[in-house]
Amino acid sequence: MDKNPDFNSQEVKKAVLGLKKNDEELAYLAFLTVRGVKPLSRWEKPLDDNGVGLLEQMGLIVRQVRRTVKTGAEVTETIFSISDGYILVYESRFADKPVDKSAQTVRFEGYLFGFPPCCVDEYIRQPYAKNGLADEKQKLLFYWACRNCKITKFLLPAYEKVYNLLNGI
Ligand SMILES: [Zn+2]
Predict the structure, then answer these.
(1) Measured in angstroms, how far is the CA atom of residue 106 from the centroid of ligand 1?
(2) pLDDT tens column, 91-125
(3) Half-sphere exposure in the Cβ direction for 24 (13 Å, CA)
(4) CA 90–ligand 1 middle distance (angstroms)
(5) In terms of pTM, does the model score above 0.85?
(6) CA atoms within 13 A of residue 131's CA, in its CB half-sphere
């Protein structure tokens, strides 16, 4: 079941404001996901029930996924999407699995998170290589753009629009 929330509704606005108060980055990430700029997003910092509730009020499907790290410790990730399908794909691949940073995983995550494959590949080869993008543009993105990226040129306006909407609420 895909949800299509009404962005002018008071409920959505209230939820966004509540998230902004907690963490502006989370509010931005959630808004990008609601608007479909990102198919799925992952929040790796702890999030309480109130935060989860606010994400749901925005029309997002939210799941908390348990992972393990090298030391054997358990970590909880919060994932959210407007599509059940992407949630299922993430859970079937990563739930209760160790966190890994292999190129294969980074590529798969990049696909789920809506990152251009050219940027993900270059990041794997050489993280944070000079890309010619102005700092204020790069910081709007959740991935590192590749040099002269043709896809980012089209994605950036969508990120900017959401960023400006968020600041206008
Ligand atoms: Zn690229």
Answers:
(1) 14
(2) 999 999 999 999 999 999 999 999 999 999 999 99
(3) 8
(4) 23
(5) yes
(6) 26
